[in-house]
Amino acid sequence: MARKKEAADFTARDWPEREADLLAPYAMRTKDSRGRRHAEPPHAYRSLYQRDRDRIVHSTAFRRLMYKTQVLVTQTNDHHRTRLTHTLEVAQISRTIARQLGLNEDLTEAIALAHDLGHPPFGHAGESALDLCMKTHGGFDHNRHGLRIVDFLEYRYADFPGLNLSWEVLEAMALRSKNTEAVEIREFVGAGRPLLESQVVDAADSLAYNTHDIDDALSAALITFDELQEVDFWRRAEHEVRQRHQQLGPEQFQPTMVRALINWQVTDLLHETTTRLGDNKVQSVNDVRLFSGTLVGHGPEVQSLKVGLEKFLHERVYRHHRVMRMAVKGARIVRLLFDEFCRAPELLPARYARKAENQLQRTVCDYLAGMTDRYAQDEYLRLFQPYTRL
Ligand code: MG
Question: Structural domain boundaries of the chain?
Fold first, then answer.
């Protein structure tokens, strides 16, 4: 008869050793990590990727996600998604998928929590505005800026700049950038295809925002249930929901639909990914690296339903005049702040003013990208509205 496991069997073993029992052969293992830029002694009981996750959660950039736009500017109301709640949804969905596929859940969680750290205020409008401001100074994209935050801009540790995250988390952040020629990205492009843990976060990001953007757009009255009848994905999910629930009050209908859409997408993703892994005989991280395409993905049916949903979101939500007004105002604030700080760097807080002596535009860009929606609006008032409190 098998010996009953003692408490010591669980507590005394190192996590990397336990990973051997828990993870699928194609999962990234802590023992195979390329490690950190600055060598550090291992922690007594937290693994490499657990520490990455903890460092991200404790960073200033992570807390600021609370007041950064996802689609609706943060002050719109008190219960739509912000970058922070979006990030938490992505992390939670990613972990479910990773666990089910036998992937490294700690690494997946760390990648998910870091995936939007580099976002400036006012969402994609803020990002495009900043990119335009930086056009002749190296440009701006939130993925590259995320790397800059975790490598240099956070200053919480005595022994190194940034958060000194593991190579695998940095690689996942870098490979999200389309600009593979950029200096900070180049060191990460040679390893082959992204790890499955990273591919899972990409898929979870997309399915999370497609679904929650519909939810927020309905709650903010940008769209109606009637308009959603144009979307095949919605109509088919509604048919299934109505069959399952004969009685469904109006308050429960919307969240039930959101759950049904997430569940459909996650289940399909797991099914299709398992099939691709099996069909292509993926047996190791090396197989993942060398595979010619994406292994984590949806089947053709859900993929095409998602395309229809995204088209609707682009036309009816992201380009809705109320969303456009927020976007245009946000972009204007970013642009005006950028120009003003570049013109008069003495207006920058001391820590940035010192750095601006050597790298004016990049420093102003770092300062601006770090701002929350709220802080950027306050700075705008402090700089341009006469007689405000300093
Ligand atoms: Mg995201």
Answer: 46-322, 336-384
What's the 116 CA to ligand 1 centre distance in angstroms? 5
State the Cα–Cα distance between residues 370 and 375, nearest whole angstrom.
9
**DSSP secondary structure, 243-290, as one string:** HH-SS--HHHHHHHHHHHHHHHHHHHHHHHHHHHHHHTT--SHHHHHH
Tokens at 252, concatenated: 């429960």
| pTM for the full predicted model | 0.94
CA of 57 to the centre of ligand 1 (A): 16
Q: How far is residue 272 from each of residues 265, 297, 310, measured CA to CA in Å?
A: 10, 6, 20
**What is the 249 CA–ligand 1 centroid distance (Å)?**
31
Looking at domain 46-322, which of 1.20.1260.10, 3.40.50.10860, 2.60.120.700, 1.10.3210.10 is its CATH number?
1.10.3210.10
Q: Hey, is 82 helix, strand or coil?
A: strand
Give which of 185, 153, 151 is closest to 166, Cα–Cα. Answer: 151
Please give the single-letter amino acid code of residue 200. V
pLDDT tens, residue by residue, 233-265: 999 999 999 999 988 988 899 999 999 999 999
Any idea what DSSP says for residue 292?
A: S
The secondary element (H helix, E strand) that includes residue 187 is none
Mean pLDDT along residues 186-205: 94
Residue 221 burial (CB count, 10 A): 8
Mean pLDDT for 378-386 is: 91
Q: How far is the CA of 202 from the centre of ligand 1 (A)?
A: 8
Distance 264 CA to ligand 1 centre (A): 20
Percent of the chain with pLDDT over 70: 95
Give the Cα separation of 106 and 194 in Å (integer): 16
How high is the pLDDT of residue 390? 60
Residues 72, 323: contact at Cβ < 8 Å?
Answer: yes
Where would I find the H helices in the chain? 7-11, 15-22, 48-57, 60-64, 83-101, 105-114, 123-133, 142-148, 167-175, 183-186, 196-219, 225-228, 232-244, 250-279, 285-290, 300-312, 321-343, 350-356, 360-370, 373-384
